[in-house]
Amino acid sequence: MNHGTYNAPAKGQRPVNILGINAYHGDASAALVIDGDLVAAVEEERFTRVKHDTSFPTEAIRWCLDQAGLSANDIDHISLSKNPKANLGRRVRFAIGSPAGRRMARTRVANLRKTLGAKSTMEDKLGIADGSLRAQTHFTEHHRSHIASAFFVSPFDDAAVLSIDGMGDMISARWGTGKGRELNLVGEVGFPHSLGIYYTAITQYLGFPNYGDEYKVMGLASYGKPTYMEEMRKILTATGLDYRLGLEYFRHQKVGSQMTWDGGSPTQEALWGDGMLAAFGPQRSDPKSELEERHYDIAHSMQKHLEEIELGMLRKLHEITGSKKLCLAGGVALNCVANGRIIQDTPFEELYIQPAANDAGTSVGAAYHVHNQVLGGDRGFVMDHSYWGPEYSEEDCRKALEQAGISYQTLSDEEAIARTAQHLADGKIVGWYQGRMEFGPRALGNRSILADPRRAEMKDILNARIKHRELFRPFAPSLLEEAVGDYFDQTHPSPFMLMTYNVLPDKLEAIPAPTHVDGTGRLQTVRRDQNARYYDLIKAFGDLTGVPVLVNTSFNDNEPICCRPEEAVDCYARTKMDVLVLGNLMAEKPS
Length: 591
Hints:
The protein is of the alpha/beta class.
């Protein structure tokens, strides 16, 4: 299979160009597939600098076209990752059956109108005459898009497939099998029941109100105890692949929970109801207030119960499919603690989750649904790295440094690797800006801030000097794939930082900085054929220190990950970062 290099068609043969779009939803994005190969994929937030931007992804589309040297009229198919006609009966019943339905229906109808008019919007945004785009438009159901984004770019010819998230097209989970270029989806869970809503509602109750804050509570959970398991099993029950919310604990099905999808960061009203107050006591309404022991215990119990439910679903999915291979997608697939248990605690032996398992990745899935299922195109592409975003030239980097008045040196490849490794070994914090940007929420070695994992104090130093985030949130280790068994209790690769494993007891003192309070690490494994430059840096650091591991966190400070070199230079200049490496250009602050 092709592992990510686009091969132009033979002379005289016209390629088929498919543009996938996630629009009017969290993490708006665009992806371009040409003759079955992914060429570009990027989130709108990378350009607008608005977290989880819900705008129409104009800049993402424009960049994807520029990357491939195409105009808008070279696009043959446009596929959106939602279908206004999907689950129409469920939509209508909810809309007329309750005040919540009628309230939510008004905003959803407006959103659906925008979706149906996406082709016209694209013409307007790109400055093209109305009606001039020749592309055929497709609407691909949300969870089908999620599943397509995992299975059709996986290395598996056949696999069990599962998508779980908050809600999309009135569905919160779908499952079945993938074989060749076909998906056979045999089951689903519909609104108002949702694993994603379960996790988000309790996240809000714990005082983390922003869209995407669930990952914070996953880190918080490691500090607590399972003292609220009885309550969690009332809030969410499951049998096999089906699950049900105790609706008295929620409000989304009663009075509605409005969510904004019309540009800017998404906002969402509270999902939790009075039942939560009765179960857990007063809500933590101020995000800056001190966390109590019960907050840690609620987070821990919620996380543990999610794992119980999800692993039970997967055991049943294996039972009905017989497959040893699994493709997982949807927002819940970003829960790396649950993911880290799948190989050990279910019969599945191989697992694939693509790097943008959240809604951003549905643009990729919508495009591959058209390629594989609508057009009957062959499979051959495997997404085994995440570097599908923008890249900037050395001249762009040089200009950004000079405009900021920052002195720098120009090094060779070998010098840049060797000197960066030495700086890291000396305890310095390095901004590492290289090549094409990552697609998905994780920085995986091209837009990363790096540090020495051997220094226990490094987590606090990173927070105090650069990241300014909650102290209970861990940082991640990146390590050579061949060394994973030397440091962790599992060896299944984790190239997209979507697995949490236990650090081996005899290595806890070797890598204390990225080891969480419970002795785990949310690791990224690195192969040279995935990212040669990052691999060489980790290896050089390992040669100096005996530890082929680095602390890796995203290159940002409470903003979207840096995309352009100007953003990286600005982050370096306004924080206490020691060293900045843009390609082979190195800037150093005085000690």
